[in-house]
């Protein structure tokens, strides 16, 4: 049922002509620069405002598309201003639960995230989760995606218990999600648990992601090493000094074996630092000193 509802939802969005925050633009095909494409979209918006009025659906769509282009080329402040205006106009002209209003609200929430305005993003993700749960069902991909973003916003604003609850709900509602999606949710849950002072509970989440990434990417892939490192840090925070030493030592060896990757080189420095701290916590200062 959720799949059918989601398909219907996307059909509605496609027929509106609305763009996401990362749109496919017709200007891409004629060799114009990003600034020129933005200027062209601004002219389209001006024409619609003059000919149709600010609250006409075509004008709202044009404003959303211009904001999306601004977001795409890094003009976050300008994008937010246009998305905020488009959302106000859409709510007044179309209503809170209209599909076009939903698209604009999501785009605005993404922009708030991109500018680290997580409190403001959270208020929009909260509404999107409620509306999509009612219209699409809790297990629909769009609902789960909004809930994952809400959990992130809560975690980044220090509301760790609420973040944990939404990460757990998102995982429960998406048992058939892609490996990357489930891994991202589990990592977010683990980080929220650790930040909430529950490092012991974060370890199983990191272990599950580590096992999945070893199978999917290999033990020495940067993404695998990053999770392996986080597992070692969680064990250290939980007071398991000996286990932290063992895990971080294994990560350090794998990092050294893959040090040709620039990202792994940077990670290696962090792992070495944390391994030295784990040695000291385990009462092995000589081995810690030997790392430097």
From TrEMBL:
Signal peptide (from-to): none
Pfam families named in the record: TPR_10 (PF13374), TPR_12 (PF13424), TPR_2 (PF07719), TPR_4 (PF07721)
Organism for this UniProt entry: Actinorugispora endophytica
The organism's place on the tree of life at top rank: Bacteria
Keyword annotations of the record: Repeat, TPR repeat
Classification via SUPFAM superfamilies: TPR-like
GO molecular function: identical protein binding
InterPro entries the record matches: NLR-like, TPR-4, TPR-like_helical_dom_sf, TPR_2, TPR_rpt
Swiss-Prot/TrEMBL TPR repeat ranges: 144-177
Protein name: Tetratricopeptide repeat protein
PANTHER family linked: AAA+ ATPASE DOMAIN-CONTAINING PROTEIN-RELATED (PTHR46082:SF6), ATP/GTP-BINDING PROTEIN-RELATED (PTHR46082)
């Amino acid at each position: 049922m959720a799949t059918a509802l989601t398909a219907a939802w996307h059909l509605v969005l496609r027929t509106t002509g609305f763009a996401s925050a990362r749109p496919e633009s017709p200007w891409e095909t004629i060799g114009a620069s990003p600034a020129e494409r933005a200027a062209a979209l601004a002219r389209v918006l001006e024409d619609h405002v003059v000919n149709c009025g600010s609250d006409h659906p075509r004008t709202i769509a044009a404003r959303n598309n211009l904001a999306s282009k601004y977001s795409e080329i890094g003009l976050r402040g300008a994008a937010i201003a246009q998305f905020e205006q488009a959302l106000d106009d859409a709510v007044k002209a179309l209503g809170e639960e209209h599909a076009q209003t939903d698209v604009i609200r999501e785009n605005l929430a993404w922009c708030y995230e991109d500018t680290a305005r997580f409190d403001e993003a959270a208020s929009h993700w909260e509404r999107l989760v409620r509306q999509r749960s009612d219209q699409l069902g809790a297990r629909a991909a769009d609902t789960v995606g909004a809930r994952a973003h809400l959990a992130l916003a809560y975690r980044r604003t220090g509301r760790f218990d609420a973040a944990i609850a939404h990460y757990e709900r998102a995982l429960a509602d998406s048992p058939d999600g892609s490996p990357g999606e489930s891994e991202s949710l589990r990592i977010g849950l683990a980080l929220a648990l650790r930040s909430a002072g529950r490092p012991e509970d974060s370890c199983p989440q990191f272990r599950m992601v580590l096992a999945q990434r070893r199978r999917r990417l290999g033990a020495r892939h940067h993404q695998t090493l990053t999770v392996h490192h986080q597992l070692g840090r969680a064990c250290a925070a939980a007071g398991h000094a000996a286990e932290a030493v063992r895990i971080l030592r294994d990560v350090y060896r794998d990092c050294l074996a893959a040090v040709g990757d620039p990202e792994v080189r940077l990670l290696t420095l962090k792992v070495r630092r944390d391994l030295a701290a784990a040695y000291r916590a385990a009462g092995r200062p000589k081995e810690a000193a030997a790392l430097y």
